[in-house]
Amino acid sequence: MDIATLRPVINKRWSSAVLLGLLAATTLAGPVPASADDRAEPIAEPPRVQLVLDVSGSMRATDIDGRSRISVAQQAFGEVVDALPDETQLGIRVLGATYRGKDKQQGCLDTQQIVPVGPVDREAAKAAVATLRPTGFTPVGLALREAAKDLGTGSTARRIVLITDGEDTCAPPDPCQVARELAAQGTTLVVDTLGLAPDEKVRKQLLCIAAATGGTYTAANSASDLTDRLKQLVDRARDTYATTPAKVDGTEACPDAPLLAPGIYTDRETFSEHRWYRVPVQPGQELRASVSVALDRPVNLDYGVLLRATAADGRELVRGVDAGSGRTDVISAGLRWSAGADDETDERDADAPTPTTPAVTTVCLVVSNMFAPQPGTAKNPGMPVELTVDVVAASPTPDGPDLGRGWVLLLLLTVAGLLTGLVAGWLTRWWVATWREN
């Protein structure tokens, strides 16, 4: 995705739900900025996906294309496993698959990982799913919590794809609350949900789970719907960025702020703090930036994130706008600003100060938050911040009507009004004269 969309990030990483894609780094005149590559060695990780399948008793229902829900899910699993990219690490966890009794306490512990997360043995994975038979209760919340543990930790986004046909029958833990807890632990876990013929109550629960982590909800009403959507979600994990953001330390003022090249950076910011960074931009170029702050601790509801671009002398160039990702644990904002040929020069290339050398504007980026901690909430370390910076060729803007065009339009409207009045008056007089004669 192009960061022009200015959406927070980063379903991805921190966000795919939040974060925005980057274009290639642009060579800049002026002081050489520190790039993400200079600050941290990129760490590539393979996509990690955990499929969570509901095998509770209700999956025996035969209401999808005349087939049972479990058979449709098994077919979809088989086709997806066959199409998996070789680099994908896949795991499969089931719930309600083994306990046949009526003891709810025991049945609500019924979740197992039948394929560990790792390189895929396609035949073994398909065989493990093919032998499943609908059996017991529906401990969705517990299964999500265990699935997150199965995926482990890492610097890149991890995905859970939940397929179920019914509401959790074992709360607590409530699955929506579990999703919020998982999201609060970091911004690299996304839960997508697929509903098999669910009712309205189930739909709301699955929507809540997905929204809490920046994931998606889809109702699968046919075998093809389920297969197609499942493939899309697994493929999406491959598209998630696989580079660790570079650590950077923002400052309390612009003059001594770190100079950044296009890249993805991470920092920490305490409550109600302002963090400053600098980005060099040439005439004819456009700065695109976004920031996401992870709510990794309880905060009051009267909060917000502000991203601003200012000149070195303090003049505000542009103020960012919110770019919601659907996540409840990340607040984001983004902005874009183009450098024109007439912009004041804040900083020039010392080696080539001739008039033909483009002036470089050093733009100051300031990240501010208006968060207020709840009683007992720790203030340090600061909340995780992810800053995305890109500099690209300025986007052309469509020509707008100038003053001349405005006068022409006004003249045409005036003439049209006069003609309409004359015609209306003539018709009125003709009608009155005709009426009197009769």
Automatic annotation (TrEMBL):
Region (Disordered) residue spans: 338-357
Record carries keyword Electron transport: no
Transmembrane segments: 407-432
Protein's UniProt keywords contain Ubl conjugation: no
SUPFAM superfamilies: vWA-like
Gene3D superfamilies for the chain: von Willebrand factor, type A domain
Name of the molecule in the record: VWFA domain-containing protein
Annotated organism of origin: Micromonospora qiuiae
